[in-house]
Amino acid sequence: MNETMNRKDLIVMKLLHYFITEKNYSPILLQGAEDEIWLENLDSDYQIVRIVSNYIHNDEQLNFDLFKTKRIVSKIRKKVFSLHMDVLTIYTDLGDNAHLDQVDKMDCLYLYDEKDLNKYPFIEKHFPDISKKLTFTEEGLQLFIKITNDINQKNKEEAEKAENVFKKKKPIVTYILLILNILIYLFPILFGNTTDFFNRFCLFGPYVRNYQEYYRLITGGFLHANIFHLAFNCYALYIIGGQLETFMGKTKYTIIYFFSLLMGSLMSITFNDFPSIGASGAIFGLMGSLLYFGYHYRIYLGNTLKSQIIPLIIINLVYGMLVSGIDNFAHIGGLIGGAIITMALGVRYKSSISERVNGVIITGIYTLFMIYMAFIIVR
After folding, report:
1. Is 280 a catalytic residue?
2. Catalytic pick from 17, 296, 331, 351?
3. Is 191 in the same domain as 239?
4. Could you confirm whether 126 is annotated as catalytic?
5. Strands annotated E in the chain
6. 32: confidence class by pLDDT, cuts 50, 70, 90
7. Are residues 42 and 176 located together in one domain of the fold?
8. Could you give the number of structural domains in the chain?
């Protein structure tokens, strides 16, 4: 009995070391899941890896285990806002009457020890280095200490990364944008003629195209019709912008804000034939960026995505369609712009080089397309 337990403990520790320190999986805390360990990495081929150490003695018990697993995965999938999750289940104690070859729609394997990995070609495909990484020179207590220390160090590093991303920081850029919006609103009231000021700086397609007044693509986003319009946009900017600046950093946040404003303005002059003012196009860009960021960190923000961010976007877009006088095209343009520029800039600790390159390409193509639509197609 002790020999069997030591054998299972050993293979479980080696697997944990591999998936956590080499493949960036994180443990999932589940109530009622005894003698099994759940790991997740939403960016991996297998988003979920289960290591099961309890004894599965026949097909009936195996089928019940898989049924239970699918129910738990369904709950996790909804929580982290994923449409599909591939699961790898690794059994370490399987009876002769439990047949893995009859299992479909889920990859499963039985490891008595690491040599059994050779029996499963799909493991070599997805984790080609696993056999090498499960081989250690240490034995006994030294092996246990090494694995424990490595896992603890990896968990500490991941915790520090999460703290670095989510730790509250003073949103300096957001404060500056708020002050600019307020000062620009007050300036014509205190020192000039509001109508003339609006006519000079509002977003209006014919003036942008015919008189090359390209500055209107930006200045229109800092004008507001009245105190309620200003207050609503400033409140949204304070709430959404303050969060996004913390997550993305000041430089990226500034780029996202002004690129979203520009994309919203280009879509506005493409489809609208009336003047437009307001920061809402840029604010929708911040929501698009937050949506993209939240998807990458959906372990932390999955519920927030579903309950707050997505409903907020939908409600505001629908409201813009139903109420006259709202520039919904600026909202849509800003939303798209914010999402794609965030893809190009990258999400800290999450975005790969290939993903950022794709983001740069998509952003470039979309920008050229919107310029073509705004200045060539519409004249």
Report:
1. yes
2. 331
3. yes
4. no
5. 26-28, 36-40, 48-52, 56-58, 87-91, 94-97, 107-110
6. low
7. no
8. 2
